[in-house]
Amino acid sequence: MGKILIFAGTVEGRRLAEFLDSQKKECYVCVATEYGESLLPEGEYICSSSKRLSAKEMKELMNKEGIDYVVDATHPFAVEVSENIRFACETLEKKYIRLLRDEDSIEEKNDCILVGSVGEAVDYLMETDGNILVTTGSKELKEYTRIPQFKKRVTARVLSTPEVVMECSKFGFEGKNLICMQGPFDEELNYCLLKQTKASYLVTKESGKAGGLEEKLLAAKRAGVKVILIGRPKEQQGYSFEQVKLYLCKEEKIKWKQHITFVGIGMGTKQTMTLEAWNACEMADVLIGAERMLQTVKELRKPKFSSYKIEEIKQFISEHLEYGNIVILVSGDIGFYSGTKKWMEQLSDYPISRINGISSVVYFCGKLGIPWEKTALISLHGREQNIIHAVKNNETVFALVGEDNGIPALCKELIRCGLESVVLHVGENLSYSNERIVTGTPKELVTEEFERLSVVVIENRIPEQVVVTHGIRDEKFLRDKVPMTKSEIRSISLSKLELTREATVYDIGAGTGSVSIELSMQAFNGMVYAVEKKEEAVNLIQLNKNYFGVSNLQIIEGEAPDALKELPAPTHVFIGGSSGNLKEILASVLKKNPSVRIVMNAITLETVMEAVECVKEFSLVEVDIASVAVSKSKEVGQYHMMMAQNPVYIISCRGGGSKENGTLS
């Protein structure tokens, strides 16, 4: 196993030492000062030194410790030190690796005066008036004494160590001319110091992101201060932190797990991100997400991969082992229709962390002043959900809308189902400068145009008290002369079906649609397909669908089994009329789902005999046959006479096969 020596004058060097320690890999870390040593992470596998070394001493250390790899992570301006390290490595034939700082392109550079050295900066400042805040360190502070009246004009900000303070005092920098502080410094603190010193000029080095350059530039711009920027020496060659880490892992056969964090970023602006989410992005090696989300954190200037497709994301992660700390950005909150669950299943081989964000329902209901603890939550974004049922049964419904013309289409459906009086609050571009919230009834908003990605809160101030049991009275249905399954038979048949809320149901031989309507109401999160061959009956089903205001009912005109070919596999099937095709119908539905639940109604003995034969032939299970004779009262003068209806045989059963994970077997 090779030994690694790190000259760690930068954040990147300290991060590398911390990483190697976490992998239980010994490393020797050299820094130039005790202060630098105090910044090093404490670790069982880290050995450190704070002594400045000459080229000769570097060679002695490499030989003594048996070093194989030398990582030069010194500051870009430590040119002489880098040359000594390189010379020592070449002499001893050690592997030299230059770790470069993250040099980012910052637009504010265009407003700076670029110079090549501290001396050039001083030459420029000697021809100016006004106070100067110097943040270039103590090493070259003597240069600034050439500025006329420097004690009045120049304030130096340096590290807060006794050695540095003594060095500065030798050159006349003390008292109000000397600020001793330890970074990092954010934009606000830089701004306050510029205002306090009444600076007209700020002198800084092009130290990149790790050196806090961006924060200085932003503060100077706010304060109206001119920046004198000392350009960093051009690196001949070198590698990024991720590249160095990957190289050492391969050479030393360090096996390490990439870690993935799913981060909910809120509405889309930095202001709606939690501090925990922002910190996670700051610590990330790479950020992954849709371009809109990456824009929210662009100021962090992190490596990024723009994608929302899990296959592409998975491939990217597997191909880029240099990224250990991976953050995947999710809109809103990770637990609210975000797709995070599916993604986590696909990435289950990796250690995963989760950070919640502010969801759109929390943000939007807060804007509207509407409590959301009893609000029904729906997503119409890439999925079918029965929003009409939700609106009928709840005072408030929140929905994500992600389709073109989504809001107008929703308004049309509300109008069709008799919900014209509800109030809609539509929100788009939430949290952005062009945020828009529009309120109105379905008729008022049906012609409006909205963004594709919108949200809506629907208020139904008088929700229906919906009957939760089946058995709608026969006279409620529009019937004409079309045969209809009577209420009592309908109730028993629906009970035998053992419906679930998410059921996919065929109603074959639907007639007036009375069974289909009740199926839709019971399986309100599923879908019902009313299959009917007669045009008159099809028209009646449509009328009853509109009258009862159900949205999860599709009418299929045609004769079974041919009409069933393009339909999704059913979980439940009701057969009220087969037109002599019972065997073929059962074969078709059992092929789609071998464990489908089936209920058949029969009046004639011939149909009963055929059903019993099919039960045997298809090896159906859980078979139950009931003969139901219903008598209903009829007023005759002052009396009530019982009138018998035709007896009906109700055959219920289930396919004997299995359906696992959506795959039929």
From TrEMBL:
Its EC number is 1.3.1.54. GO terms for biological process: cobalamin biosynthetic process; methylation. SUPFAM superfamilies: S-adenosyl-L-methionine-dependent methyltransferases, Tetrapyrrole methylase. Pfam families: CbiJ, TP_methylase. Pathway: Cofactor biosynthesis; adenosylcobalamin biosynthesis. One of its GO terms (molecular function) is protein methyltransferase activity. Residues 260-445 form the Tetrapyrrole methylase domain. This is Precorrin-6A reductase. It comes from Velocimicrobium porci. The gene is cobK.
